[in-house]
Each structure stands twice: as C-alpha cells, then as structure tokens.
Amino acid sequence: MFMDFFWAFVVGGLICVIGQILLDVFKLTPAHVMSSFVVAGAVLDGFNLYDKLIEFAGAGATVPITSFGHSLLHGAMAQAEEHGFIGIAIGIFQLTSAGIASAILFGFLVALIFKPKG
Amino acid sequence: MITKENYAKEIKKYQPKPKLFKNCLKAFIVGGLICVVGQALSVMYIELFGFTEKSAGNPTVTTLILISALLTGFGVYDRLGQFAGAGSAVPVTGFANSITSAALEHKSEGIVLGVATNMFKLAGSVIVFGTISAYLVGMIRYLVQQFL
C-alpha cells in the first residue's frame, strides 16, 4: 500500500518534470505541453505501453493529462472491435466522458458563482 | 564590436537565468503530491464504495476536477500554478483549471459570449489533438489487427 503511494508520487512527479523541462528549456507554452502530452499518451497506448505504466504507478499515470490520450484510444479500440472503423468514432469519448462532462459542469458553475480574481 | 551573431550571446549574461533545477524540483513535488491525492481518492473509492481498480478512475478524475474548479474559483490554483509551473499544469487538475479560469476571466462579457464561448480557449487544443492522435493511432492499430 505504501509503495503504491510512493510510485504514484515518483512517476507523477517525473512526468511533471518532463513538462517543466519542455517549458523552461524548449520554451513551449503550457498549451503546447499539454497537447504534446495527450498525443504522447495516445501513441504510448498504441504500443500497449501506457497500461504497463498504470499497472506500476497507479494514479501517478492516471492523473497526468497523458492518461487522457490513453483513455481516448482505449474507448475507440473497444468499439472498433465490435463495429469496425466507425467504432473508433463511436467509442473515442466513451471513457473520457466523465472527465470532460464534469470539467464543463464544474467550470461553468464556478464561473457563475465566483468573481474573477486579479 | 557587436554584430547580429554575437548580440544574442552578449546579452545572455544579463538575462535572468531560468532556475531549471529549482523549477523542476517544485514541479516534481507538487505534481507528485497531486498524484498522491489521486491515489488516495482511488483507494477510497475502491475500499468504501465498491469500485474496481479499473472503474475507480472515473470518480477519481471527477473528484479531482471538482476540487480544482473550486480552488480556481477561490484563486488558489492559479497561485499554485505560479509556484509549481508544470507540476500543476500537467495533471488533469490543470485541464480543469484551464477551463474554469478561462470561463471566469471572460465572465464580464456575458454567460453565452463570455463564459461558454471562451471555456475551451486553452483546453480545446488538448481535446483536438487528443482526438486526432487517438483517431490516427486507432486506425493504424485496427488495420494492423485486421491484416496481420
């Protein structure tokens, strides 16, 4: 149990360090970093590598935005097995639905209730 | 003699050096801690609410997004972002923060034209590139599975 938390911390932290290096050394904007990470997650999942990382690091791999790309592809492949090519379009948002829907809902509600700062 | 070529070199010593190591350390600690919170949430959903290791991902991410949206509303998350850099931008909480802060920032322009229109200003690129890359990788993988 303790080791689960330890590896989640280390792997999640290291993914963020890669992001920080892209920001500081390669002078990318945060939007570029986030987009690259999503693409990286989808490509890694294409080779079945991201599932191994999740098995090893738990939330250290599912919390960073890379897991968004991984979930997109997972949903797409699950439906592709049943419906062929059109299944990719059917399934692509299946697993990420909860994340996108709640981000829209909570973002909207917070914007209604709170006042902008600064 | 200052030429165009050595100008960049000449001014370099007067520019503030980005504290790469310190920034990376801060990103590592904050990013790691956010993942630890995620791990604790998923353990809670598995132990107390009967989710499996696989299905616990959705409630965990949803809870993190709720926390992040609220912290953004209180102005805490953006201060954390100034401290942690990529450490708070890379986790899924950074995705929720980008949606909430863009919506809040444009609140004065109205709910339709301000909040709803600008919500995906930053997060839109993540969804667009995620969808396109997953589509392409998905098609390649499907073809490989079918014909090999």
Please explain how this structure is put together.
The complex is a heterodimer of chains A (118) and B (148). Chain A has 118 residues and is mainly alpha-helical. Chain A has one domain. Chain A is built from seven helices and no strands. In chain A, α2 packs across α5 and α5 packs across α6. The longest helix of chain A is centred in the N-terminal third of the chain and has 23 residues. Chain A is globular, with a radius of gyration of 17 Å. Chain B is mainly alpha-helical and 148 residues long. Chain B has one domain. Helix content of chain B is 78%, strand content 0%. Chain B has eight helices and no strands. In chain B, α3 runs parallel beside α6. The longest helix of chain B has 30 residues. The model of chain B has no long low-confidence stretch (mean pLDDT 90). At the A-B interface, α1, α2, α4, α5 and α6 of A face α2, α3, α5, α6 and α7 of B.
Give the structure's gist in a few sentences:
Chain A is mainly α and 118 residues long. Chain A has helices spanning 2-24, 30-46, 49-57, 59-62, 66-83, 85-91, 97-113.
